[in-house]
Every structure is written in C-alpha cells, then in structure tokens.
C-alpha cells in the first residue's frame, strides 16, 4: 500500500477505510471489476453548497456531501470540506472534490501580479511533499466570479498513483480569503473540472464583518463592496483591525484608485 501521509487531496484515513472494506465488500468489488464498471463520462452536475452555504458549486450527482464525508469518521478542520464519489468504496477509483479556505492576511492581499499563483504552488508543494507529486505549469484561470484564479494540472500523482488519476488544483482569490479547489478524477470517473470550477460562487454572509450581528440594516463598505457593517462604529473598528489594507488592495486590484 502506498504511503499517503500528509495527503491533502485524498485523505489517508479515508483511503484506509476504503481499502479495509469487509471481505464481503471485497468479493462484490471483485465481481464488479472491469469491464462491468464503466467510466462515467460527464456525470451530471447538481447544485451543492459547502461551508454552511458560504460557497455554492455544482458537483457530480450522487456524490457524498461534506456532511456525509464527515460522518464516515473523517475529521477535517473547519476549513476543509470534500465531496467524494461513492465509488471510492468500490475500488481504486478514488474521486474527490476538495475545497479548502485559507484566510488571506493583509500582507498577502491582492496586489496584482502573480501572488496567487505563487501561493497555489507553495501550498501544493508543501502539502504534496510526502506524495512526491509533480506539477505542470501554473496558469491564470479565467473566471467571472472572482477577481483572479490560478490553475495547475498535476504532471504525476507520485505515491498516490493507482489510487487516483488526473488531478487539477485551482486557487481563487475570494474576498479576504483564498479558496483551493481540487479535483481528483479517479479511474472510474470523468468529472468536468472546468464546469465544477466555473460554478464556484461566494455567497456573501448577511452579517456584520466586525461584530457578527445580523441586523436587518447592514451597510456595505462603499469602497470595496465586499463587507457589511451594522454601524459606523463597527466599520471604524474593523478598519483599524486590518480591513484598511484589504480594502485598499481590493480596490486597487479592481483598477480603482
Ligand atoms: Zn456590527
Ligand atoms: Zn472595504
């Protein structure tokens, strides 16, 4: 069994539990082995949400939801959620759509250029170190939903070879945070990554960015339009707490003054 320690895309515990399926499951898996199990070309995508509705996206119909994945015993942190193909239980065709949020500090705020591309590669190289994965060139990804996005295809999945096949990773620069979206296409799936990536949307929370209150009279920051406040006092305190830099960078990134 390959070493999968530290795998961010394919959870080690999850693989282990899938591999350690009861004997009866193994037998039925054997029976269902190819050529009976076809590759599902372009599985239909359906609407889904993650992170309590903070993001919307479309995922293959019938896949395990983040809540179901968590219920299998996976213990991800609050910033990671996955949609997983049910075929993961039936063989090596492990497929997952992995979403990770990472706060972007003011010092990392969008300043134009290729900062996001560098953050994507730094993240992947760190997370995939133990797996020996290699990567193709990183490229700008055209998206109408976010300021900027960056995409990279894995050149090889290293030690995960045989557990998953093609892997693509995307970083989108959402308001005040980076979102990493990764798709592992297992051997039995052919998910349209572009369609999944293009469907990702940030759903602004109707709460005050400073105090978290959900007053019905929230006002937008007039400059960046990415945050809401319940009062002038909350806006002033959030500005001092660091919104100043984030706000100015967001405005500059948009080509404003
Ligand atoms: Zn407030
Ligand atoms: Zn602002």
Features:
257 residues, alpha+beta, 6 helices, 26% helix, disordered N terminus, binds zinc ion
Can I get a quick summary?
The chain is α+β, with helices and mostly antiparallel strands. The chain has helices at 12-19, 23-32, 66-71, 115-127, 193-199, 232-253, and strands at 40-41, 45-50, 55-60, 80-84, 96-103, 134-135, 139-140, 149-156, 166-174, 177-185, 189-190, 201-202, 219-220, 228-229. The strands form 4 sheets. Strands 4, 5, 6, 7, 8, 9 and 10 form a 7-stranded antiparallel sheet that branches. Strands 2-3-12 form a 3-stranded antiparallel sheet.
Helix content: 25-40%
Global mean pLDDT: 76
Contiguous runs where pLDDT drops below 50 for at least 5 residues? 1-37
What order do the helices and strands follow?
A: HHEEEHEEHEEEEEEHEEEH
* Strand element count: 14
Number of helices: 6
Overall outline: globular
| Percent of residues in β-strands | 25-35%
- Tell me the distance between the termini: 55 Å
> Bound compounds, please?
zinc ion
Counting helices, strands and paired strands, the structural category is alpha+beta
Largest sheet: 7 strands, antiparallel
Radius of gyration: 20 Å
Structural overview:
It contains six helices and 14 strands. The strands form four sheets. Strands 4, 5, 6, 7, 8, 9 and 10 form a seven-stranded antiparallel sheet that branches. It is an alpha+beta fold and 257 residues long. The structure holds zinc ion (2 copies). The site of one zinc ion has 6 residues, from helix 6.
């Amino acid at each position: 069994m390959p070493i999968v320690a530290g795998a961010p895309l394919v959870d080690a515990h999850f693989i282990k539990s899938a591999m350690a399926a009861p004997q009866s499951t193994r037998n039925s898996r054997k029976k269902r082995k190819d050529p009976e199990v076809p590759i599902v070309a372009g599985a239909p995508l359906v609407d889904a949400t993650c992170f309590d509705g903070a993001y919307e996206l479309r995922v293959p119909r019938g896949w395990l939801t983040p809540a179901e994945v968590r219920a299998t015993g996976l213990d991800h942190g609050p910033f990671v959620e996955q949609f997983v193909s049910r075929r993961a239980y039936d063989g090596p065709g492990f497929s997952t759509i992995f979403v990770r949020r990472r706060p972007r500090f003011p010092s990392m705020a969008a300043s134009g250029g290729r900062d996001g591309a560098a953050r994507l590669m730094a993240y992947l190289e760190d997370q995939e170190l133990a797996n020996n994965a290699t990567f193709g060139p990183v490229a700008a990804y055209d998206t109408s939903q976010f300021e900027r996005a960056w995409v990279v295809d894995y050149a090889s999945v290293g030690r995960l070879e045989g557990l998953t096949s093609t892997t693509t990773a995307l970083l989108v620069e959402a308001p005040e945070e980076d979102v990493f979206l990764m798709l592992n296409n297992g051997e039995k799936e052919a998910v349209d990554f572009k369609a999944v990536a293009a469907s990702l949307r940030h759903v602004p929370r109707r709460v005050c960015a400073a105090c978290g209150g959900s007053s019905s009279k929230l006002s937008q920051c007039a400059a960046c339009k990415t945050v809401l406040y319940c009062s002038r006092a909350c806006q002033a305190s959030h500005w001092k707490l660091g919104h100043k830099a984030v706000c100015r960078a967001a405005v500059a990134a948009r080509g404003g003054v």
